[in-house]
Specification:
Strand content of chain A: 25-35%
Organism (chain A): Planococcus salinarum
Family (chain A): Belongs to the ABC transporter superfamily.
Keywords (chain A): Amino-acid transport, ATP-binding, Cell membrane, Membrane, Nucleotide-binding, Transport
Helix content of chain A: 25-40%
Membrane topology (chain A): Peripheral membrane protein
Main location (chain A): membrane
Structural class of chain A: alpha/beta
Oligomer: heterodimer
Number of helices of chain A: 9
Largest sheet of chain B: none
Number of helices of chain B: 8
Chain lengths: 240, 219
């Protein structure tokens, strides 16, 4: 489903991603982990081209996103994204946050979009918040709305950029639970996270980045219990 | 002290007519200025270099020279150059619309740039096209931030509109001068229209507060 080949990203003279190649299959849940500044978020943002790679290709279902003239808006419809700081639209109600893109971009009828949005809100446990504005929600609720908003476009792939890092500790679980349900339902997910418990329990595969290089990848069991590289061992010692 | 307001009473209907004359051209100028200002602001934050350059040069010229000079140039030199006899109303609207669009474009640009960058990223990630994103996501949020500055600009425009009296447009100000020279008394008519200007600005202020309150609903 996603195929990343020889991806480089420079910010000025600073090399943030150094020759990354990776494949993510449909239905797979992949966790990207690594120390801060290792390029995890940048790699994730290259997958929907919020960040333009300096060189290399990103293929989504065989379509080269980074090619000149690629219809990037269309590809992005298939790739949902959940941000660390939610980025809900503050001037729209929760329901409007969920229905805006489906109506505007996919051409859904308002009634259909409302119906679908209500279903999604029920799924993330926020049916009673449809008419509320984002500013009245807690962090955990905002993030669940953000997940529902991404799902409203019926994407084939969901990207999570440290979805629980901005949350109070007691709200982390409610968001992770929603993500676990999604993973169980077969959604393809790429998750940048510091939640090692989540990576170990939910991910099918772990990708470990350090200084912009893909150092190690493997199943969570192998990676967490039996890291092959020195750098992964170092990192795990500090975080576990 | 020699004040006698009874003398201006016969002239009151004449002066009151100036309210409509002033409001008419202020409203058209605000509309022209807002539309043009929004377009210029979008040029300024866009990626097309020539458009950005044009918008910056435009702002520099219209902010860098006196409004009364721009008005004079439009009213007196357009006929000289083109032979087209431009009306006072048209030149007033042009001068004020073009001038205030320079200020409004700066206000809107700052407002757009103050909107969290994540909003644009969230919209892009949903596949929302640029135009829709600007119109429905970014500009409404920018508008909320800039409303006080925008109201300020509209108030300034309303008051500065008195400058059109210099090209003989029969606005409030000009009418006060006409009455003044008719009566050989200036203080009373000037004070009278001064009060009307103040009332107009108050109405604008109240409208601004009402809109602000409505936009605050989502807080």
């Amino acid at each position: 489903m996603i195929n990343v080949q020889n991806l480089y990203k420079k910010f000025g003279s600073n090399l943030v991603l150094n020759d990354i190649s990776a494949t993510i299959k449909s239905g797979e849940v992949v966790s990207i982990i690594g120390p801060s500044g290792s390029g995890k978020s940048t790699l994730l943002r290259c997958l929907n081209l919020l960040e333009q790679p300096t060189s290399g290709t990103v293929l989504i279902n065989g379509v080269d996103l980074s090619a000149k003239g690629a219809n990037i808006d269309r590809s992005r419809q298939q790739i949902g994204m959940v941000f660390q700081h939610f980025h809900l639209f503050p001037h729209l109600t929760v329901l409007q946050n969920l229905t805006y893109a489906p109506i505007k971009v996919k051409g859904l009828k308002r009634a259909e979009a409302n119906e679908q949005a209500k279903g999604l809100l029920a799924k993330v446990g926020l049916s009673d918040k449809a008419a509320a504005y984002p500013s009245s929600l807690s962090g955990g609720q905002k993030q669940r709305v953000a997940i529902a908003r991404a799902l409203a476009m019926e994407p084939e792939l969901l990207l999570f950029d440290e979805p629980t890092s901005a949350l109070d500790p007691e709200m982390v679980k409610e968001v992770l639970d929603v993500m676990k349900d999604l993973a169980k339902s077969g959604m393809t997910m790429v998750v940048v996270t510091h939640e090692m418990g989540f990576a170990r329990e939910v991910a099918d595969r772990v990708i470990f980045l350090d200084h912009g290089t893909l150092v190690e990848e493997g199943s969570p069991a192998d990676f967490f219990d039996n890291p092959k590289t020195e750098r992964a061992r170092d990192f795990l010692e500090k975080v576990l | 002290m020699n004040l006698d307001f009874s003398q201006i009473v016969p002239y009151i209907p004449f002066m009151l007519k100036g309210i409509w004359t002033t409001i008419q051209f202020v409203i058209v100028s605000i509309i022209v200025g807002s539309i043009l200002g929004t377009v210029l602001a979008l040029f300024k934050i866009g990626t097309v270099k020539p458009l950005r350059w044009f918008a910056d040069a435009y702002t520099s010229i219209f902010r860098g020279t006196p409004l009364i000079l721009q008005l004079m140039i439009i009213y007196y030199s357009v006929p000289q150059l083109t032979g087209y006899d431009i009306e006072a109303f048209t030149s007033a609207v042009l001068a004020f619309g073009l001038n205030s669009s320079a200020y409004i474009s700066e206000i809107i640009r700052a407002g757009i740039q103050a909107v969290d960058k994540g909003q644009m990223e969230a919209a892009q990630a949903l596949g929302i096209p640029y135009r829709a994103m600007m119109k429905d996501i970014i500009l409404p949020q920018a508008l909320k931030n800039i409303l006080p500055a925008l109201m300020n600009e509209f108030i300034t425009l309303t008051k500065e509109s008195a400058i059109v009296s210099t090209i003989g447009y029969l606005d409030l100000m000009r009418r006060a001068q006409v009455v003044g020279s008719d009566l050989f008394r200036n203080f009373e008519p000037l004070l009278f229209v001064g009060f009307i200007y103040w009332c107009m600005v108050m109405v604008l202020t109240v409208i601004g507060r009402m809109i602000e309150r409505r936009l605050k609903l989502s807080d």
